[in-house]
Write a structure and sequence with these properties.
With about 400 residues, this protein is an alpha/beta fold. It contains 13 helices and 24 strands. Helix 9 links the parallel strand 17 (about 250-255) and strand 18. Bound molecules: MU-OXO-diiron.
Length: about 400
């Protein structure tokens, strides 16, 4: 990614990772970027770095604008290594003694990632740093999504450097929202659903705080994907909507199957939901990636989970999905379980236990059918679908 000037004397100098397809369990089908920003003021300031493997690209990009040795300050908004992995190479070039600004938790966490004794300058929430014509304001955003996370705001330009928040895993030739249009919202939604969903309550508080502060927001510059310049409020409004987790009249039937019996049940349940006017679809766990299913879960009113019983337990992909979904803590869902079994039939009970742990409202004790569903079994699946349809909450 060639450096570009995104505002007067402010440059995007990060890197594009065109080929990443798995970001610790999240499918990044469109790749991603690791954004870093260089502010050319009296004190030349770099905000964030890149993943370790892209450090040379970052340094080359900076070098097109200024000799990295001339950088005065480095800011780390977030410790996770897709943004800090490039620090050792970068600090080596910039000068190991240059001030490295971060939150208090950033200081602790960076120190645990890197043995170098850098010149850490831990900042307070609301702390300011003059860099010449501009003043940077630091805003702690603890647990959005790490304890160390913070934003850096430049009031003179109305630019918010928002770290992971408002990002998207998207690699493309476009740099701004205006270039890519509405298509980017799908990537932004997936990013939210898989990274930030469990912190929805904090996002609502943060948006409220930012709005009350009356900050001018001419541009939001996240650490992944495109920059919000044409309409920064669009992504803020989307975050408010997604964080509220209002369910739609929509149901997902998420399942895996061994000999098509659980699949037959899934499709019968979907048929019945559809007959009741519910936007429903089956999601086979070996056809859909867990992170794409989570994106669909975001606004679903019901999640119905099916698994055959295998070796007295759940099918591996089903427990994988349930574990993943549980970690992201979706709210306002109803649920149900189903599955085919041979002789022991524990799967439904085990799914129920997981859904209860997620505080889903179970609308049925669950449906298990031995071996292959017959006409009675299909009718029972239809009944289950109808029952879920009757119970689903409608907020749209
Ligand atoms: Fe993009 Fe939390 O790192």
């Amino acid at each position: 990614m060639k450096p570009i000037e995104i505002a007067k004397d402010i440059f995007s100098v990060g890197a594009i990772d065109w080929n990443i397809r798995d970001f610790h369990g999240y499918s990044t089908n469109h790749g991603t970027t690791y954004n870093a920003y260089l502010v050319m003021d009296e004190k030349i300031t770099l905000i964030d770095t890149v993943k370790k493997e892209f450090a040379d690209e970052l340094i080359a990009n900076i070098s097109e604008i200024v000799d990295p040795k001339k950088i005065d300050y480095v800011i780390s908004n977030h410790t996770e290594m897709d943004h800090s992995g490039g620090l050792p190479r970068l600090m080596h070039k910039v000068g190991e003694d240059k001030p490295l600004y971060c939150s208090k938790m950033g200081y602790k966490n960076l120190s645990r990632h890197f043995p170098q004794k850098w010149n850490y300058q831990a900042v307070e929430d609301g702390g300011e740093l003059s860099i010449g014509k501009r003043t940077l304001t630091f805003m702690e955003t603890r647990m959005l999504h790490w304890p160390d996370s913070m934003f850096t705001y430049v009031k003179e330009d109305g630019i918010l450097f928002s770290s992971d928040a408002f990002g998207q895993h998207y690699a493309g030739p476009e740099r701004f929202d205006a270039d890519v249009g509405d298509a980017i919202m799908a990537d932004a939604k997936k990013y939210f659903a898989n990274i930030l969903l469990l912190y929805s309550h904090l996002i609502l508080k943060l948006v409220d705080k930012v709005m009350q502060m009356g900050l001018a927001l001419d541009m939001i510059c996240p650490d992944h994907g495109i920059i919000w310049r044409k309409d920064p409020l669009k992504i803020i409004n989307a975050y408010v909507k997604w964080s509220s987790q209002k369910p739609r009249r929509k149901a997902l039937v998420v399942y895996d199957t061994m000999w098509h019996s659980t699949e037959t049940m899934a499709e019968a349940i979907v048929d019945a939901l559809g007959d009741q006017g519910v936007d429903a679809k089956p999601m086979h766990l070996r056809s859909w990636h867990r992170s794409d299913i989570m994106t669909e879960v975001l606004d679903a009113g019901a999640v119905i989970v099916g698994s055959p019983t295998i070796n007295n337990g759940l099918f591996p992909t089903v427990i994988d999905f349930l574990t993943y979904m549980k970690g992201l803590r979706p709210k306002n869902k109803i649920g149900a379980a189903f599955g085919s079994y041979g002789w022991s039939g524990e799967a439904v009970k085990l799914i129920n236990k997981e859904l209860e742990a997620m505080k889903f409202d179970l609308v049925d004790p669950g449906l298990k059918i031995q071996y292959v569903p017959d006409d009675h079994g299909i009718a029972a699946c239809h009944e289950l679908g109808k029952k879920v349809a009757m119970a689903i909450r409608i907020d749209d």
